[in-house]
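Per reviewer request, we include the raw input and output of the structure prediction for the construct analysed in the revised manuscript.
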Amino acid sequence: QVQLVESGGGLVQAGGSLRLSCVASGGTFSRYDMGWFRQAPGKERELVVSIRWIGGFTSYADSVKGRFTVSRDNAKNTVYLQMSNLKPEDTALYYCAADTSNIFVARYRGQGTQVTVSS
C-alpha cells in the first residue's frame, strides 16, 4: 500500500510561482509512474502531468505546457511540480497519484493540496 502526502499549496497572485511536493511511502517509489491531477469545483479531474518510472518520460496537459515542470527524486521518494506564471484558471485542488502501469487509473492518490491564484 502506497501513501502519498502533498504539500506546498497556497495562495499566490497571478504570475507567481509555487512548488508542490509529494512524498511517497509504503512502496517501491522508483517503480511507479507518478502524476499530478487537479480538480476545480464543478470541473472534471484533469491530469496535469505524468512522469514515467522508466526513462523519466513526461507528458503535460496543453494548459500547463511551458509553465509547469515535473521532476522526481527517487532517493527521496518525492515528486515535485514546479508551477510558474500561474493563472487564476490554475486554481484547484492538486493531488499526486501513483500507478504501476496506467496513471489514469491512479491506483494510489494523496489527499491533495489547494492552490489558489488570485487575479
